[in-house]
Design goal:
The protein starts with 7 loop residues before the first helix and ends with a helix. Strand 11 and strand 12 form a beta hairpin. The chain is of the alpha/beta class. 41% of the residues lie in helices and 18% in strands. The longest helix is centred in the first third of the chain and has 16 residues, at 34-49. Helix 2 (34-49) runs antiparallel to helix 6 (164-177) and helix 3 runs parallel beside helix 4 (109-115). The structure holds guanosine-5'-monophosphate (5GP) and manganese (II) ion. The site of manganese (II) ion has 6 residues, from loops.
């Protein structure tokens, strides 16, 4: 039996909103990951079974290794079809906002969502939810939006409508947001949910193969190169940094998603408590950070690298060159040690 975490009043309100809605739009954050896509597709599947007219709209393309998920090919990429996406959002009577806490996480879709007269419902596990939706199901203690969404379905008495395909999407999100249950994975309830999803017919072995163990040759070589030639280790400061510039990415025919997980690797070294990965984009630098224990990479990203996130997993978009971002990171190592490690 799952412990109860969702407020009854919010369940009641959501039930009414779903009952009264006909056209539903499901949205999620930019650079949609497994949890974003998994929760969106599961929501779409269950709402479609309820007889609703449902569209999933992504701010930009999802990682290609997620496109095998049931229903993924019907998702609408708003970058490719901006007017179509804006029209659907304006026309909707209910908009689900999944796996993001603030409208700025949906990029160019933010204005359309803000302007739509549709009711908005937020279901998310990031800290500090904005106040653009009602009800807000914000549970940062949940390791994924997919785990939280399973709970929401149960509370709405829709458990029986979760078919094998929706279950596959939910488990995909739970697996990707926990590194296949290797971090944020100490919640016993999560395993009750996994058991229920597997009982629905999900092949977890297949999901692992598709989500974690399928890479192109270029991707494997790029990661090997990054580890052997580009990893800087600052043992005294407990830090590590990997930077990849455009020419290096091009040499290995970089495709979106190829460096997923790379930032975690240096944390395997005893004594390294935080790690940064920086990738040169066209006019900014994409920053990813991970940490162990109570080192707050979200603060580091927020204070210096134009972003934010969770305590142990954060990111940002740095407005400057790759060299500047790397120099800034190195220059903060001593201060970080005093502030967050030796404190
Ligand atoms: P990733 O390193 O996988 O891109 O992102 C890890 C986490 O950091 C995300 O789940 C998100 O919470 C946060 N994050 C990543 N990029 C950004 C960003 O540009 N801005 C903010 N505010 N958070 C980000
Ligand atoms: Mn998530």
């Amino acid at each position: 039996m799952l412990t109860r975490i969702i407020k009854e009043a919010d369940v009641k309100r959501l039930k009414r909103l779903v009952d009264e809605s006909r056209k539903i739009v499901v949205t999620t954050h930019m650079s949609p990951d497994g949890d974003a896509v998994g929760s969106s597709l599961a929501m779409a599947a269950v709402m479609t079974t309820l007889g609703k007219d449902v569209k999933v709209i992504l701010p930009d393309r999802a990682l290609s290794n997620l496109m095998f998920l049931p229903g993924a090919k019907e998702m609408i990429d708003a970058k490719q079809y901006p007017d179509f996406a804006a029209g659907l959002i304006a026309d909707a009577d209910l908009i689900f906002c999944l796996d993001y806490n603030e409208l700025k996480r949906v990029g160019a879709l933010a204005d359309a969502i803000d302007a739509s007269s549709a009711e908005k419902v937020l279901i998310d596990h990031h800290l500090n939810p904005g106040d653009f939706a009602d009800p807000v199901f914000s549970h940062p203690d949940q390791s994924s939006t997919c785990a939280l969404l399973f709970r929401v379905f149960c509370r709405l008495e829709l458990f029986n409508l979760i078919d094998r395909y929706a279950a596959e999407c939910l488990l995909a999100g739970m697996m990707t947001d926990t590194g296949n249950f290797s971090y944020n994975a100490n919640d016993p309830d999560a395993y009750i949910i996994v058991a229920e999803l597997i009982r629905k017919g999900v092949d977890k072995n297949m999901l692992y193969e598709r989500l974690f163990n399928t890479h192109s040759e270029n991707c494997l070589r790029l990661n090997a190169y990054a580890m052997s030639k580009k990893m800087e280790v600052f043992a005294d400061g407990g830090a590590a940094l990997i930077c990849l510039d455009r020419s290096e990415l091009n040499r290995f025919h970089y495709a979106k998603g190829d460096t997923e997980g790379l930032v975690n690797k240096p944390l395997a070294i005893p004594g390294i408590v935080y790690s940064a990965f920086m990738r040169e984009e066209d006019n900014y630098v994409k920053i990813s950070m991970r940490s162990k224990g109570d080192f707050p990479v979200n603060k580091l990203c927020r204070d210096h690298f134009g972003g934010g996130g969770h305590l142990n997993a954060a990111g940002g978009e740095f407005d400057g060159t790759l060299d500047e971002a790397a120099r800034l990171f190195r220059s903060l190592i001593d201060e970080n040690k005093k502030k967050y490690i030796d404190k």
